[in-house]
Amino acid sequence: MSKGVWVFVEQKEGELLEASLEVISEGRRLADQLQEELSAILLGYQVEGLAKTLAHYGAERVYLAEDKGLIQYNPDAYTAILAGLIKEHEPSIFLLGATTLGEDLAPRVAGSVKTGLASNCDKLQVSEEGLLLQTRLCYESKVHATLVCPKAKPQMATVQPGVMKIDTPDESRKATIIRVNLNSYIKPEAVRTKVVGFIKGDPKTIDLAEAELIVAGGKGVNDKESFQLIWELADHLGASVGGTRMAVDSGWIGSERQIGQTGKTVSPKVIISCGISGASAHIFGMRDSKTIIAINIDQGAPIFKLADLGVVGDLHQIIPALIDRLREVNSRESEDGK
């Protein structure tokens, strides 16, 4: 009989992604409702120290697979390990973050173990029958649909980053670490790819959900020509660019860069909101940003209630001044580095 809630936790250079902390916190909530055990699956190299952190967030077991070949994401190896563990232990629920890696890995694992998958969910619940109710937007983000997988196990879902609350860690919690014997799951001939290096994504093209720094523009930018200021500021900061629905509808920026309830949900370390009043639909998509800086000429704009730092003024004057200052700093650093 299938039992237990499992979570795949993603780490990068020995640091847990916030999306994974969100998923493990959600997994803990579901496990408590089902009165089942929560297990975390951790892959990488020299990452055993992260197991203690996972215990603090509620994991009772940590399946640890360490090898130099797992430093970078390898779809064949990762799939083989996860599918092998699932077939052996038969958890009832398996969750992943809907990150770039998670959205690539999840369908591979689901196909290998022959189960269903609900991707990019923004709400998870348990039914009276103990089934996982998986809610996600569909039909061009116009309708919420709730999916259920009553027969195939595990019930699999990827969770949209930034929508689940991260629990406060409890340092008194401990977890049992189970070391995974890779030879039991990975056949050398099954690993068809080899990762030879890692190229950091260009902020201009990476998915906004993955961005650590975002400059976003809204109605107050006024026109497409002025929106180039947003791109220029982002370029000097090494940031990604986003916009409100109004900016998208006006043709100032592509729909894939829309932040909000009908666009992307983001949780960067810093977001600079320029000319954005703070409509509820937009706030929904960026409220979990770690630091929010708002620039708006209207001191009564709702965005200021959410902002960590607010600048009241004309963005058409403030942003060029910021860009000039960044040029000075970058020039000075270049001279010092000679």
Spans with pLDDT under 50 lasting ≥5 residues?
none
Rg of Cα set: 22 Å
Shape: globular
Terminus-to-terminus distance: 65 Å
Q: What class would the helix/strand composition place it in?
A: alpha/beta
CATH superfamily of the largest domain: HUPs
Sketch the topology as an H/E string, one letter per element.
Answer: EEEHEHEHEHEEEEEEEHEHEHEHEH
Overall structural domain count: 2
CATH topology title of the largest domain: Rossmann fold
Describe the structure in brief.
The protein has nine helices and 17 strands. The chain has 338 residues and is α/β, with parallel strands linked by helices. The strands form four sheets. A seven-stranded parallel beta sheet has the order 7-11-6-1-4-5-12, sandwiched between helices. A five-stranded parallel beta sheet has the order 14-13-15-16-17. Strands 8-9-10 form a three-stranded antiparallel beta sheet.
3D architecture notes:
The chain has a seven-stranded parallel beta sheet with strand order 7-11-6-1-4-5-12, with helices on both faces. Strands 14-13-15-16-17 form a five-stranded parallel beta sheet. A three-stranded antiparallel beta sheet has the order 8-9-10. The chain has nine helices and 17 strands. The model has no long low-confidence stretch (mean pLDDT 92). The relative contact order is 0.11. It folds into two domains: 5-190, HUPs (Rossmann fold); 208-336, 3-Layer(aba) Sandwich (Rossmann fold). By secondary structure, it is an alpha/beta fold.
